[in-house]
Every structure is written in structure tokens, then in C-alpha cells.
Specification:
Layout lengths: L9 H12 L3 H13 L3 H25 L5 H9 L2 H31 L6 H4 E2 L2 E2 L1 H19 L1 H30 L18 H10 L2 H5 L15 H30 L2 H5 L10 H8 L3 H33 L20 H14 L6 H16 L1 H13 L10 H18 L2 H22 L4 H10 L2 H19 L4 H19 L8
Antiparallel strand pairs: 1-2
Helix pairs in contact: 1-8, 1-11, 1-14, 2-9, 2-11, 3-9, 3-11, 3-18, 4-5, 4-17, 5-7, 5-14, 5-15, 5-16, 5-19, 7-14, 7-15, 8-11, 8-14, 13-14, 14-15, 16-18, 16-19, 17-18, 17-22, 18-21, 18-22, 19-20, 19-21, 21-22
């Protein structure tokens, strides 16, 4: 087989991102978004998609200039230095580690309610059981086997799965709307389309799995060196995949809200109580054949996303070696598949261990979203640096792109603030611990100097994260008025420009 014939076509490239975005999110996100923002959750999906579309265009410009695997992990390492880059890279890798078991758990959670006598053995009191963890582990082993034989097999399997992941959600949404659709549901609670105010719209993006669901947009760019004609295919793949997924999620959200029995809504959106939302709703509507399809797809959709994230994360680990951020053992590539199977196996082991610490999909999605936001901040910071200082991006897809990058950062900064202080502290602690371990390894013969070099080259991001945590704690005791957010924006903006201009210790 020639080198060119081993590369996937444009449809496969698009499906890499689509397949990553349509996972457990389509089974749960519409339900959790409704509980958080009511009917206004529709706006949450649109706002989230618009933000991601702008991010996709910025990432496309960088991918055209730097067609390398694991690009999203390497952004800051390319634009700044490997020490600063490690912070966002490790956040990206950690979130990927969590996503893999979360997709396996999502499948288990849905299947747990398929046969009621089996339910207590797999999922009880909102948490997955030890037996359920065993089933989730089997799903993860399947992810490993598919990835072991490289992107050619991965893309073939993913193409089949993604067709199912596109056709089934659309069909489910249409069938539910035909069976039962009451437009009055959209204002049934408190006679308002937006019963919880504008803040709930943004809260749903962070806490209900919306941003979590869209984050897979960057998957195609993470396989860049294995894709044909990246200059043409990457922008098309990233943008079209976001638009396809937005349509699917909007259909599901509208169908879910419109088909709910009105008495459920009048009691309040927060009173909704489903374990397998779409399947249970289909059951209430008497659509038993649809229930069977949904339970079957509860394995297919999350598994497709899980196996893609496992492949994505192993490539990110492989590429971090090039910046001396991971041991050299994971930098070699197997010629037959053009990536490191060692990196794949380590990623699998780490994800496998994490499966025993997370036992609820929404909790996982909420924590993962915090890591996602931190890693996404690398994009506007790296982009602005490349445009302003190195001036190395030959293609411009957005007018006023540096202004767009800055506004994206401010949006992400707001999402980070509302993601929850507990999640922020967990994310910061894990990131900091990994960073210290990395910093001490830069110059093992002089650990003090090693720490100075690493922190001196990346202190801006730590100051920023500590500021957000502190401000989040203040917000617990101070009512958030206009000045509260004005001050937050001003300080965030100042720290953004500091990070864009962050120098390595050798330049100071």
C-alpha cells in the first residue's frame, strides 16, 4: 500500500471531528441543558457553536502552517516555549484521559436502565457500581484494539460508526417531534422562554456538557500529519463538522423540550429526573422501537468518541516528547502505523485507572469542561503570539483575527469562572503537580535551576489560574454585580496580554 493510499479522504477527515463530537453528549446534554436553562438552552447550543466556529478558523490557520500531529497540545510549545506549553499540553492530555472512561461509563449508564432487574448491578443511586465498572472496562479494551492498528483502521471503523451517529440522532429527533410536539412547552414554566435569566444560558454551556460535546472539533487537526492536503482539508473539516453537529444537537434539544409531558415542565425544569433521558422519554411516548434503537446506540455513539479520544490522546503524548515534555520512550513511531504504540498503551493504562475514580457522567463532563477551557485558552494566546511577534501564519481566514482571538479568550475566561471553584482547584492542583514533576526533570543535575527556568518561562498562566480561583472564592461571598465582572474582565485582559508576551527565562 502506498503512503498516499494509506491516508483517509476528506469525508473521513470530517468524520474524525464529527465522530468525536457526537458521543455521550447527544444522549445526555439536551436533558442536563434543559434542567439548567430551560428552553433557553437552545441559545446555549448556538452560542457554544459560534464560539467553537471562530476557534476552528483560528486553529485552521495554525494547522496550515504547522501540519503536525497532536497540534492542539503543541500550540503554546510552538508559539512560546516548551515550559509554558507543558501547562496547556498536560491539561489537554488529562482531559482526554478523563473523556475515554467517561464515554465507557455513559454506555454503561444507558444500558443499566435497559433491563430493570439488571439496573442495580450496574448503576445505582446515580453512581456506577463495581460490576458496571467492569463492563465499562470491556468497552475501553475495545477502544484499544481498534486504535492499535493505526489511523487507516480507525478511520474505517469511525466512518461506519459516525454514519450511525449522524443518522440515528437525526432520526430520533424527527420521530419524537412527529410523535409529540407541543410548542407551548417552550414557555410552560413561569410563562418564559428564559425562566432562569441570561446567566443560565452560559452556565448550561459549561455545566451541562455543551462545550464538552463541541470540544471534539479539533480532532481532525490532531491527526494533521496523517491527512492528505491539510491546507484544503483541515479548514473544511473543522468548520463543516461543527455545523453538522450543531444542527444535530439543536434538533435533539428542540425535540426533547417539545415532547416532554407538559406537567413535567410546570413542576420546574430542575425537577426533571431521568437516568437515560431520550430512551425514557421515548418510552413515555410509547415509541418502544425507538427505545431499542436508543439503547443500541448507547454503545455505538460513546464508543466511537471513546476510541477516537484514545487515539487522539496517544498522539498528543507522542508529540509532547518532541518538546521534551514526556519521556523519550514514547516518542518513537511504529513504521507500520506511523505513530507510537507505546504512547497508546500508556494512555490506555492511565485512562483505565481513572475509570475507578469517576462514577457519574455529569460530574465527569463538568470537571472535563474545566480542563477543556484551560487547554482551549492556548489557542487565542498562541494565535495572537504568532500573528503579533513571529508573523508566521501565511493564510488569514478571519478579518480582525487578533481581536477575535482576544474576545474568544474573554469568553473562555468567563466560562472558567463559572465552571465551579471545586473543579478549578482540582484542575489547578493536578496541573501544578504534573508541572513540578516536569520542571524538576528539565535539569536533574540542578533541580533549583530547573524550577527557575520552567516557572520563569510560564508564570503568567499560573498567575491567571490563581486569580480565577481567588475571584471564584470571592464570588461565593460577594454578590456578582456589574463591577464584579468589569474588574474580572480588566484583570483577565491584562493577564492575557502578559501571556501573549510571555518570555522564556533565557530571554529575561
Amino acid at each position: 500500500m502506498s503512503k498516499s493510499s494509506s491516508k483517509p479522504g476528506l469525508l473521513s477527515v470530517i468524520f474524525l471531528s464529527v465522530g468525536t463530537m457526537i458521543g455521550s453528549g447527544w444522549l445526555f446534554a439536551a436533558y442536563y441543558a434543559s434542567k439548567t436553562a430551560g428552553s433557553a438552552s437552545i441559545l446555549s447550543w448556538i452560542i457554544g457553536a459560534v464560539l467553537v466556529l471562530f476557534m476552528a478558523l483560528l486553529l485552521s490557520e495554525i494547522a496550515i502552517k504547522h501540519p503536525v500531529n497532536g497540534l492542539f497540545t503543541r500550540l503554546i510549545s510552538i508559539s512560546h516555549n516548551s515550559h509554558f506549553g507543558f501547562v496547556t499540553a498536560i491539561s489537554n492530555w488529562l482531559l482526554g484521559l478523563i473523556v475515554v472512561p467517561s464515554e465507557a461509563i455513559a454506555s454503561t449508564q444507558y444500558l443499566a436502565s435497559m433491563y430493570p432487574p439488571l439496573t442495580p448491578y450496574l448503576f445505582t443511586d446515580g453512581l456506577i457500581t463495581t460490576t458496571g465498572l467492569g463492563l465499562a472496562a470491556i468497552f475501553m479494551i475495545f477502544y484499544l484494539f481498534v486504535n492499535f492498528w493505526g489511523i487507516r483502521l480507525l478511520s474505517k471503523v469511525n466512518n461506519v460508526i459516525t454514519w450511525v451517529k449522524v443518522i440515528v440522532p437525526i432520526s430520533v429527533a424527527v420521530i419524537i417531534m412527529i410523535a409529540a410536539f407541543d410548542s407551548g412547552n417552550f414557555t410552560a414554566y413561569k410563562d418564559s422562554f428564559m425562566p432562569f435569566g441570561a446567566t443560565s444560558i452560559f452556565a448550561a454551556i459549561v455545566s451541562s456538557g455543551i462545550f464538552y460535546s463541541f470540544f471534539g472539533f479539533q480532532a481532525a487537526a490532531s491527526f494533521t500529519s496523517e491527512l492528505p492536503n491539510p491546507k484544503r482539508n483541515i479548514p473544511i473539516a473543522l468548520v463543516s463538522s461543527v455545523l453538522i453537529v450543531l444542527v444535530i444537537y439543536l434538533l435533539l434539544q428542540v425535540a426533547f423540550i417539545g415532547a416532554l409531558p407538559s406537567e413535567m415542565i410546570t413542576k420546574g425544569w430542575a425537577s426533571l429526573n431521568f437516568d437515560s433521558p431520550l430512551a425514557q422519554l421515548a418510552g413515555l411516548l410509547g415509541l418502544n422501537f425507538l427505545v431499542v434503537i436508543l439503547y443500541a446506540d448507547a454503545f455505538v455513539s460513546p464508543s466511537g468518541t471513546g476510541l477516537l479520544y484514545l487515539g487522539l490522546n496517544s498522539r498528543q503524548l507522542n508529540e509532547m516528547v518532541k518538546h521534551k515534555q514526556m519521556p523519550k520512550a514514547f516518542g518513537s513511531r511504529d513504521r507500520a502505523v506511523n505513530f507510537s504504540r507505546r504512547a497508546l498503551i500508556l494512555t490506555f493504562i492511565c485512562s483505565f485507572v481513572l475509570i475507578f475514580f469517576f462514577r457519574n457522567w455529569q460530574l465527569i463532563a463538568s470537571l472535563t469542561t474545566t480542563f477543556i477551557v484551560i487547554s482551549c485558552m492556548a489557542l487565542p494566546v498562541a494565535y495572537d503570539r504568532m500573528r503579533k511577534i513571529t508573523n508566521e501564519l501565511p493564510v488569514k481566514l478571519l478579518p480582525c483575527s487578533r481581536v477575535v482571538a482576544f474576545l474568544i479568550f474573554l469568553c473562555l475566561s468567563y466560562f472558567l469562572l463559572i465552571s465551579g471553584t471545586k473543579n478549578l482547584v482540582v484542575a489547578f492542583t493536578l496541573t501544578f503537580v504534573f508541572f513540578v514533576c516536569y520542571a524538576l526533570s528539565v535539569r536533574p543535575e540542578n533541580k533549583a535551576r530547573s524550577l527557575i527556568i520552567a516557572f520563569g518561562s510560564s508564570w503568567g498562566i499560573f498567575c491567571y489560574l490563581l486569580f480565577v480561583i481567588l475571584y471564584g472564592i470571592i464570588g461565593l461571598y460577594v454578590e456578582g454585580g456589574v463591577m464584579y465582572y468589569v474588574i474580572y474582565i480588566i484583570v483577565s485582559a491584562a493577564l492575557y496580554f502578559q501571556m501573549v508576551n510571555q518570555k522564556s527565562v533565557d530571554e529575561i
